[in-house]
Amino acid sequence: MRFPRSLLWLGNVLLALLWSAAGFAGSYDAPLPPQLASDPDLCAYAPCREVMPGADSFSLRKGRPGYVEAYRIRDEYEKAGRDGRKDQEDEHQEGEREEREHGELIGYVFLSTDIVDIPAYSGKPMVTLIGMDTRGIIRGVRVLKHSEPILLVGIPEAQLDRFIAQYIGKFAGAKVEIGTSLAGSGRIGLDAISGATVTVIAENQTIMRSAYAVARQVGIVKAVPRAAARFTALNDAPDWNAMVREGAIERLTVKPGDLGLPETGEPYIDMYFGYLNAPAIGRAMLGADGYARLMADLKADEHAIFIVANGLGSFKGSGFVRGGIYDRIQVLQEIDSFTFRDTDYLNLYRIEAAGAPSFRESGIFIIRNPAFSAAYPWHMVFLGNKMDRETRVKSFVNFEREYWLPARYLEGGRPAVSQPEPAWQAIWKAKQVEIAIFLLLLAATATVYGLRDHLVRRATHKDKRWVSWPKYAIWTASIGFVGFYTMAQPSITQVLTWFHALAFEWKWELFLSDPLIFIFWWFLLGTTLVWGRGLFCGWLCPYGSLSEIAFKLTRATPLRRFQFELPQRLHDKLKWTKYAVFAGLLAVSFWSMGAAEQLAEIEPFKTTFLVGVLNRSWPFALYFVALLVLSMFTERPFCKYLCPLGAGLAMPTTFRWFGLKRKAECTTCHACQAGCGPQAIADDGRIDPRECLLCLDCQILYYDDHGCPPLVQERKRRGKAGLPLTPIAGNGYYIPIKPVPADKPAQDDVT
Amino acid sequence: MSETHDLPTMLPHYAADNSRMAWIGREIWDHLWPWSRRGFGRHRFLLALSGGAATAVAVVWLLAAAGRIGPSVVIGWWVGWSVFEVLVRMESKPYIKEGPWWGRHYRRANLMDMICYVSFKNLLLGALLFLALHAVGVLDFLQRLPALDWLYR
Ligand code: SF4
Ligand code: SF4
Prior knowledge:
The complex is a heterodimer of chains A (751) and B (153). With 751 residues, chain A is of the alpha+beta class. Chain A has 4 domains: 34-217, no CATH class; 240-409, no CATH class; 429-703, no CATH class; 712-748, no CATH class. In chain A, strand 4 (127-133) and strand 5 (138-145) form a beta hairpin. The two termini of chain A are 58 Å apart. Chain B contains 5 helices and 2 strands, in the order H-H-H-E-E-H-H. In chain B, helix 2 (42-65) packs antiparallel against helix 3 and helix 3 (69-92) packs across helix 4. Chain B has one domain (3-152). In chain B, 61% of the residues lie in helices and 4% in strands. With 153 residues, chain B is mainly α. The structure holds iron/sulfur cluster (2 copies). The site of one iron/sulfur cluster (SF4) has 9 residues of chain A, from helix 21, helix 27 and helix 28.
């Protein structure tokens, strides 16, 4: 039927609407006041009361890592006039001590970025404000800012709020995980946000580590002591280079560029450090007397490390002069952090080890904590202040280096250490069943398609059950299981993320964190090279399947008479749109990934599967409905003209290894062309592999001697001539009848 | 037979080379060297050159405006070169391979075929080059050069 232009216009208008709607983003991406990160009065810039209900006033930032104390005023009269922040500020300055005397300490409030530096999916941390009472119970959590694309457009804010609310009432020392936890494991499982697993895992670490760090610092949680190291009685005195080689001395280098400063050829800091309690190392570094003196000063569970450094910067910094705390260095052992005060510092005047270079800065630092054990690995952390080139905003960055005493210094060698399982492994384990079913589905699809030659031979253009039934089964699994249940709909945003990872920084964890998508992409890459994009688009894409099912179902109703196909010439022009969309998104992504993610809303996938049409604002819902209605009347309009993912996959399809079969007559016969829903066959009979969705209709016809005109002709000719119908060969023709010479016996007779 | 039997097959002259090694060698050469002696007039060369250069400049400018100097130089160069290569190849080596990569079936390329070929091939080459440079430490060395600092920020 003729193509109703009004529908196309409707589509265009909706598209324009959608793209403008992509600008709607949540409140989480508003910039934060720069003072938030550094001002002593944290609560003047952060909604502390919201996360610490019942608090009337807050102290200035204190401690390392920083936190503020929350007070409730006991006497009502003292509360009068204190509600405004201005008054509070004055009070902070004038009488903090007085307030402490009259107020009751009810908890602590802290900003996650003061404590941990955990990048989420976007590569940026989620700035979170957390309130915890004096028993270590989390009382409130607020995400102040994040840059997670999926949460900015897509998953509604309410879901993030629901997720965050799960932390209220949890103990800071508890082991909290995402997903259901095994009974008896002592861990608490939280519900994730579907489709944002990476984000919530990062946020879980952010909240729990911050809470633990503050709870440790204020003494709510006591660190579990580790078994102390027992040192071997070595008599050798290794020189500097030997100790560096064996790892008794480690090195941590930070370049100016790492901190956003211009490179000068000299490092910002070039630190060497090591553990002095081990007698052989201590003696080598300090000499026998120096070592003996040091050990005499240390108590049983105290540990000395030395740090020496060259470079433009200083590891001592100036912080210790002000607050008595060295704020550039820190020692981490698993979740425990150890900081140093001025009283933990000793001068290191001379390095006795032969071959030691000279250093600009040096010192010995004492860890006074039974939780530390030199038998286990620990990290030296240098805390830098990084200036963002564009925004000029400073933020903390951590540079770490692992140290683990070489086995020969430890009696019995290094103890076995169970490394915590990376987050992605936990996700793979938690999704074992889904992964298995999904692999089965992929294998089944590849097998069915691999057997296509058998299937299409059994089918006819009037009865396509041999092909269509397996396909409908796969479509159903794809829509129900892959799309709605596991939400593993591939998307162009993943392609953009790859290009970025290629150009900037490749992180396997990022891709591994979503197992089904990860597997899907390997399958997609493989099958696209072997057969072309059609295997995914025509058989497995949840949205594509949904779209084609809508068309097929409508065909079974009286509405069928309104179904239409664009004229080939128009189609041949419009099909380029999707490539333009793909190229445009790619270009925009290099300019701004966030903008590209928002524009990628041209894919209705999020609305369909991830978020659900009912959860989305009306422009998205309208776009989804319009596309669906359009799909009922013309086959896969989105796939043919708009889908950037389809376009991205179509391009390498140019080089697929195995194409479809054609015969010489295809150049003039238009039978297949008329039946090709995706309109992939040109007038000259050539199949455009980029547009072909491997529906196999033309392949059914290829072997169908009641459908393919050259075969029909031959069948009729043989019928008239009384010749037998030989089987149809792989080249699409009846096996020719060759008269056997009379003087030779026929092959069959011989065998 | 293949999907594209009916297009005039444009064989590169080495397609029928008997020696397998020689054929592979010529193929590799073809992937790396877009020019051939035939059919590429001087003015067209200049056209392609300016097209490529204009694209490169536009991309670099756009990205630099977004504050990404280092990668933008690489990406801009890559895009510009690819545009240039497409234009050159359409004149000098206007064919692509059809079917399995280990086969010897070539066909005449239309513009879209060539765009797909060049972008895909250059992406692979770029990734390979990157890995190779990384493996031998050239990238680390360059990153440490103060003179190139602006590139890495
Ligand atoms: S074109 Fe897009 S929506 Fe359609 S099947 Fe392919 S990937 Fe899915
Ligand atoms: S009819 Fe043939 S050419 Fe058309 S989409 Fe189906 S398989 Fe591809």
